[in-house]
Amino acid sequence: MTASGDAWVHGPEHVALPWASVTKLVTALAVLVAVEEETVQLDQPAGPPRSTLRHLLAHASGLGPDGGVLAPPGERRIYSNAGFEAAAALVAAGAAMDFGRYATEAVLGPLGMTATRIEGSPAHGVSGPLRDLVTLARELLAPTVVAAATMAGAVTVAFPGLTGVLPGFGRQDPNDWGLGFELRDGKSPHWTGARNSPRTFGHFGRAGTFLWVDPDAGIALACLTDREFGDWAIRGWPALSDAVLEDL
User: Fold this and answer.
1) Burial class, 186, CB count within 10 angstroms (exposed 0-12 / middle 13-18 / buried 19+)
2) Domains of the chain by range and CATH?
């Protein structure tokens, strides 16, 4: 997928598969819509004491992966499904509707992602086809459901300098994240390629799925599989990313 809207697809486009943690990209967009609608505010209290919605989206609230406070807010980057679930619950309370419905009305519906469903956890509950994942890639290249300035802020480092573990790739110092978007910056090892610019952002999931956007190259790459994340992905994803960037 390029910034001009050109897309090249390999494999079946219409088979719905789990997105796992790539779900967080949909959830983050829905939360950003809620911020623009003033349903919630990024700096309102949310999660553990002294934590805010901004902390939750940036994996900086101190919540552990599945709950429990492991650190004070703003001191460590701790990847947390529980933090995203708390962020979604805040939006649901403010909007007075189930978060799955809110995300559908705010993101999936407007983008025409009609075959994609968010069920269960807003941290990892989306299932959908490659066609819709490519649609999401197009949106992240040129946002329409949120303002460009909102998106730019979301892919800027939140709480700079925090160390932490990037799941599957080990400790990173710093382990930079935006508001729901994992940032490449200078991380090594990383799931994107050596040719990706430091401004590359996106997410990957345990279902063997990923989506990155490289704004400097004007390219997005999406991969949807039915193979659980493992050594094959650690080896293959960076090589695929470099090959695509070299070719385009």
Assistant:
1) exposed
2) 17-247 (3.40.710.10)
